[in-house]
Amino acid sequence: MDERGIMIADRDAEFRSQVAEHFRKAGYRVETTDSAVHVLCSILEKQTPVLLLGNDFDQKISSADLIHLLKKCNRHLHVILVSDEMPLAQARQVRQEGIFYHALKPADAADNEELGLAVQCAFDKKRAGYQAAPTDPRAKEAGYLSWLAPLSVLICGTSLVALATAASMEQGSSMAIWLFLAFCALLLVTQLLPVFRVKLPARMRQQGSVQKQQVKGEKDNP
């Protein structure tokens, strides 16, 4: 994915050239097009993070339908819709499809401040989303321990089968039946444990935090 990539999709060639020049000077990598097919292919292949889309960009497909397709290609895409005026019903449709911002079309080359701020906010939000998803150490610990239950069942089951074989040879088959039932009970317990796994750790963590606070209070007030 191009982290500083922008695509400008509009039928107005002068507008595309004007806005592209502005963002190139700002340090962005800019691609322009007047083809809906090109937009779809580029978003799907290059995963361009920000799209400046002109209203009524394609006469064969509405802006809302095009945004819907683009979101299917890349659900993290930030779409900034650029238009002069838009009917209220159409504005509601495009907002329901998940546009990032609705900007007014610049009147001239010196009127690009709103677009610049919108693009900057889109990239800031994307970076903040990446930084706000650190790896949870508790999830790592759970991943390490998740295989212990099946492994314990396997070891116990193997041991019980071995004991059952030896016992059946010495004392008859009744001992083997009891061991088999015990093995089934162990399997049932391991299947029921996840039901209580949600509440028990939270309660244990609360008790642990209370104990730590009590110990800390005793140290602070000897």
From TrEMBL:
Transmembrane spans: 147-169, 175-196
Keyword Transmembrane helix: yes
Keywords attached to this entry: Membrane, Transmembrane, Transmembrane helix
Response regulatory domain segment(s): 5-120
Organism domain of life: Bacteria
GO biological processes: phosphorelay signal transduction system
Keyword Cytoplasm: no
Protein name: Response regulator receiver protein
Organism this protein belongs to: Citrifermentans bremense
